[in-house]
User: Which sequence fits this backbone?
């Protein structure tokens, strides 16, 4: 069972990163917004796998549901068209790759010096029904 959850983690993580990158790369605004919805859904699946069911549900209902429907409505209302394509130079691509490489090196150097980054956390404690009722009571009574 451990192997299958590990596999699902990588599927959801790669899906989140793929659709997040697709948001940036896609030239069509509607396609970019739909890629953002898919990225949010994959992120919600990661929350489900961490047994954070409340966060996963809120991720789907609020962000992937309500906020993205509003974004799509505004995009379609504005009737945005494709961005005109322009030629990018080879020098720009090389400079971008060099900067990304150095940013990755700095990222791993900073993470390597942080002791908190090397600590593995245990799994989340199981949520009981009375805890959910207490959170609901606090939200609606105070």
Assistant:
């Amino acid at each position: 069972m451990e192997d299958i959850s590990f596999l699902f983690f990588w599927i959801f993580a790669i899906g989140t990163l793929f659709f997040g990158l697709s948001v940036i790369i896609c030239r069509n605004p509607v396609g970019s917004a739909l890629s953002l919805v898919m990225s949010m859904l994959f992120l919600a699946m990661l929350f489900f796998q961490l047994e954070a069911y409340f966060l996963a549900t809120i991720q789907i209902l609020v962000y992937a549901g309500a906020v993205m429907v509003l974004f799509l409505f505004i995009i379609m209302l504005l009737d945005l068209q494709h961005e005109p394509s322009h030629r990018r130079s080879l020098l720009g691509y090389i400079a971008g790759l060099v900067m990304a490489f150095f940013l990755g090196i700095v990222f791993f150097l900073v993470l390597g010096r942080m002791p908190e980054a090397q600590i593995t956390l245990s799994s989340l404690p199981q949520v009981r029904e009375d805890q959910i009722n207490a959170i609901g009571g606090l939200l609606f009574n105070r």
